[in-house]
Records
---
Amino acid sequence: MKNVSIVNKETFFHDLFYDGKGMILKMKYANMAITVSYLNQYIKEKIANDEYLNHILIKGEISNFKHHYTGHMYFTLKDEKSLVKCIMFKSYAQKLNFTPKDGMKVFILGSVSVFERDGVYQVYAQAMEEDGVGDLYAKYQELKEKLEKEGLFDETHKKPIPVMPKVIGVLTSQTGSVIKDIINVSTRRNPNVYIRLLPVAVQGEGAAEKIADGIRYMNENYLADVLILARGGGSLEDLWPFNEEIVARAIYDSEIPIISAVGHETDFSISDFVADLRAPTPSAAAELAVPDIYEVKQKILGYQNRLRISLIKKVELMQMRYEKCMASTVFKEATRKIQEQYLVVDQYIKKLENIIKTKYEKEKSNFVELTAKLDAYSPLKTLTRGYSITEKDGKIVKKVAELKSGDEILIRLADGKKNAIIRD
Amino acid sequence: MEKNKNFEEQMAELEKIVTELEKGDLSLDESVAKFEEGIKLSKECNKVLEEAEKKITILVNQDGEVKEENFDAENNN
């Protein structure tokens, strides 16, 4: 696009003359006039270069909305004072999660550009969301603050999720993927799981009441050990039942611990805040509610092993202490002491034996000597040589004087003895 | 739901016994007794897991009365 070369603005305007009835153009500038399309092109480029206008978030009310057979949407966006033309191409229009209608308040994300043919600038919408959401959101915030102040979100009130619940209660719609996901995850973790589904509407009119009744019903008959409150993703309007006060109070009053898994990971509904536990998705809720049986069994196995090991260690410890005692010097000492005593006793015995032996030998030799000597001095020997021993009254008579006539004497000869009387 | 409460208590009790035994300051007799108690408890816990039976049910309201029926998510839509 050729760059518009208005030679010099000041001189150009200066030369124009306005006589109250109209403009008189000095002919010499005639060739400088630009064409209409050139002007529109220029404006289009101007707008295109303005980065603010490339990304705008605008809100307003839809009017004379036309959904063209080509799939494109044409409408105008207005507020009290003015309006702007809008167009939403098919590719973007398909992504809308609501159907635009006249009078609807909306937010539009898009850009501004000039439609050259009509010399009109318009908003090219890429995304659109109901502004009505705004009021819902306000209501949500308001209720959230009110309940928070009342203490419905307090951690202290939240009940722990049972480690091994026998029955898992589920409140969601019986159709759709949510219940399927919950069942799949639960049975994977515990093939013998018991899931009791109480189907409830999760969207639209009266859903909140049904959900609240469902929670009360499960409590009255104690039909579960843990409750999963779940629904899939959706707009704030879709999730609205879970932001209603009666559901919040039903959750708060529930004796059975409740896991809330409402909407996408990024959505936080009031039931999530009141519930005993929030799960980002229904499957996550199932994982939090249903213990993995394999893990529990491993844990029990672990305990058994630790029991065995610690008992074995205990026995070994005791054994060691026993052996240590036995090995301790005190015992050895004792046995050694005993052995020592044995030795000592042995030695004594030996000594005694020796002593006795030597004594015996000595005595024997003495004896022999003595007997020899005895023999040598033995009167018997002299007797054998013909001598005799005279005894009176048992005493040996050595002198004649000792005898007088009539005395009885005993004469001992080598081979015997005789009695005699002294004659003179 | 009384029974399942016991499971949690049993597991807690089991944990307690194991830690007590591991401390090691029990007499030999006490240790043996604790050991036997622990093993018996662990067997009970396993039994609870084995005995459980798979059930997927749905509570349906038939003319005012709530019935519990088997629920098959696959062909329910």
---
Amino acid sequence: MQKKVLIAGGLCGTTMLMAGEKLTERCRQEGISLQVTIQNLWETTYVAGRYDLIVEMFPFFQDQPCPVLSGKPFISHVGEKALVEQVVKLLCGGGLSEVV
Amino acid sequence: MLYFDYAATTPVDAQVIDAMAPYFTESFYNASALYQGGRKARQAVQKARSQVAQLLGAKPEELLFTSGGTEADNTAIIGGALAARAKDPRRRRVLFSAVEHHAVGESCRFLETLDFEAVELPVDSRGRLLPETLAQQVGEDTALVSVMWVNNEIGTIQEIPRLAEIAHRAGALFHTDAVQAVGTQPLCFQDSGVDLMSVSAHKIYGPKGCGALAVRTGIEITPLLRGGQQESGRRGGTENVPAIIGFGKAAQLLLERREEDVQRMQERKMRVLSALCGEDVLCNSPLDCTAPSILNLAFRDVEAEGMLFCLDREGICLSMGAACNSKSVEPSHVIRAIGLPPAYERGCLRISFGRGQSEEDCDLLTEKILRFCAILRR
């Protein structure tokens, strides 16, 4: 199963890169092949293509066709594991409402 | 566009541009040339030197023009420490406060590659270096002490004359980075007891690429830029005549306007502070010990970068006290030095004031910040 995730935020690409690696590794364990795109919103806010999920490092996205989760835990490292699990559940087909 | 980032840089005053223009065109000459055009350019440089010296309360011959505050800091610290040690080989330590601008911190750390010891001194929760903290650390092995007059992130005003006196009792040189101070503080180089003082033109409505280092008569520094004999042999390189002229004009205008500037800034700072302070906001720039030009506020559970992003999309410019490093947006060294609770560390915004901001501008700014705070805390 292949899924596409956009991680969008600001100055620190490294924080987003590391978030992408954590999500990719965890999803691989569930048989999900993740294609992660990193986007610096300071450079462009245009979202090219469709995604199965967006992780925003600060609130920006509205009215997106896919779920949008806050990536704040990847910055503060508080609740990071729970967020990763939430992403896996979502990508495995569980809707947002099913995700506790 | 609403500009609330005067501490980053200021717009160049129209009169400054007018003063600079001829030196880009008909008076383009090299100020070291012997023919009439060159001599006129030299006279104009000397006039600008007097204007900046008058602003700083220094003698014109004590002023050394540089490419900006960073070069002035490097020259003062590296040049001052090397010269001090050449005179007295025991002097191998340089002391600096934990809230210094990177130009000072990195210059001090660079000296460690030249067999000096760089010692960072802690500050209190308001960012002040306490005189007793300096007194405990300074000694006969100290070459130089560097403490900035006004902090560029939170606006803390240091007790410079008293700190300079403590340094001098141990025979150490005292440098102050006054880049953020000169726009609001009536500082006087002669009376301050300071040996070396850095300033920059683009913080006082002058051009970028120009600053100055005031070097007290009798103090020796080892030049960093070697080449020609410009600036009395202390700084090689063809003078940036237009920028120096602009700096002189900006200095003259500031002398005329500073009192009114300060009054206006205090009013704007109070207006914004009273609109934003609340239980979820910490003020890092209390009115009694910070410059009127800077207001640093910490917002609980808010990502400052997210706030900046939202405000930028509304055409509002301000800054955050954070440095991006390779891992994530970390709180700046200044914010860490004053020690905020974790929930506030990443939510620091610097709002800085200057000419041309109306009360309506302030009200619009605070309204937007409060609105985005609610969104960012979701």
